[in-house]
């Protein structure tokens, strides 16, 4: 067992495999006690036993299906009532089965429940709770497709754009209350999500697929550096800053009392 300095407790959703399980390992290595959340209790229990033995941390298991709103509320209750929790890793999510026009609507609605509704509720519950305590952090796992909606399934893209926007907005309200937030935007990552969606990661260009441990290590490095948005594949952070600056240039002209002259629309006469 490796001796580590104790830190606050972290709650990780989607922790039974992939990105979530890797976050659990890395956070345990850093000395965080853990609450692991997912549907598969056996996998969670096996991971909990391994991490506890390897790092000497306390690991609790909370079985929950976050497509079910009652289960989301159970996790929310734990977030609000366990005063030792100082970090939420909002990771649970699913990907599409195929193109939007051939995907199943019920599956897409389940995706929204998990990728949007559950993420939203847990992130806000954590932000409210941490703000009252004056400390805490939230890591929301989004995706690079939030920035390139033309390249992937529309519902999935939109769900990840929601996560990015939510994170940026929470930061505006909560940063001065001791709450840190980070949106992580992975590209293609070697996890089970492709198999679960009926595809195979082996069909993809390997030069575009990042190993999950590299992804999480880079994301945590970005967190340590205080990044609000972390894109592990992006070579030059200046590109993201330029994108943000270009977006903000639009801000003064997004709402006026009349249409832009380029539309040739005459101003409506003011009501008498």
UniProtKB/TrEMBL annotation:
It holds the Pfam family adh_short. One of its GO terms (molecular function) is oxidoreductase activity. InterPro entries: NAD(P)-bd_dom_sf, SDR_fam. Gene3D superfamilies: NAD(P)-binding Rossmann-like Domain. The keyword Ribosomal protein does not apply. Keywords: Oxidoreductase. CDD domains: SDR_c (cd05233). The keyword Oxidoreductase applies. Belongs to the short-chain dehydrogenases/reductases (SDR) family. This is SDR family NAD(P)-dependent oxidoreductase. It comes from Ensifer canadensis. The lineage of its organism: Bacteria, Pseudomonadati, Pseudomonadota, Alphaproteobacteria, Hyphomicrobiales.
């Amino acid at each position: 067992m490796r001796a580590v300095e104790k830190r606050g407790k972290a709650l990780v959703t989607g922790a039974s495999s992939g990105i979530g399980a890797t976050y659990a390992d890395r956070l345990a290595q850093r000395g965080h006690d853990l609450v692991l959340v997912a549907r598969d209790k056996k996998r969670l229990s096996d991971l909990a036993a391994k991490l506890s033995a390897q790092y000497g941390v306390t690991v609790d298991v909370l079985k929950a299906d976050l497509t079910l709103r009652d289960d989301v509320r159970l996790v929310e209750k734990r977030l609000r009532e366990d005063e030792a929790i100082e970090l939420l890793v909002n990771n649970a999510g699913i990907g599409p089965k195929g193109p939007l026009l051939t995907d199943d609507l019920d599956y897409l609605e389940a995706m929204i429940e998990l990728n949007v509704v559950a993420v939203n509720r847990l992130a806000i519950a954590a932000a409210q709770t941490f703000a009252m305590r004056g400390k805490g952090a939230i890591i929301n796992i989004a995706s690079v497709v939030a920035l390139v909606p033309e390249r992937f399934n529309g519902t999935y893209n939109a769900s990840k754009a929601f996560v990015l926007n939510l994170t940026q907005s929470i930061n505006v309200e909560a940063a001065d209350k001791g709450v840190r937030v980070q949106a992580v935007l992975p590209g293609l990552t070697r996890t089970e999500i492709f198999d679960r969606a009926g595809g195979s990661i082996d069909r993809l260009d390997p030069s575009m697929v990042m190993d999950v441990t590299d992804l999480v290590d880079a994301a945590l490095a970005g967190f340590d550096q205080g990044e609000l948005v972390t894109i592990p594949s992006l070579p030059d952070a200046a590109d993201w800053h330029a994108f943000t600056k270009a977006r903000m240039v639009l801000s003064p002209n997004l709402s006026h009392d009349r249409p832009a002259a380029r539309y040739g629309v005459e101003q409506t006469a003011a009501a008498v």
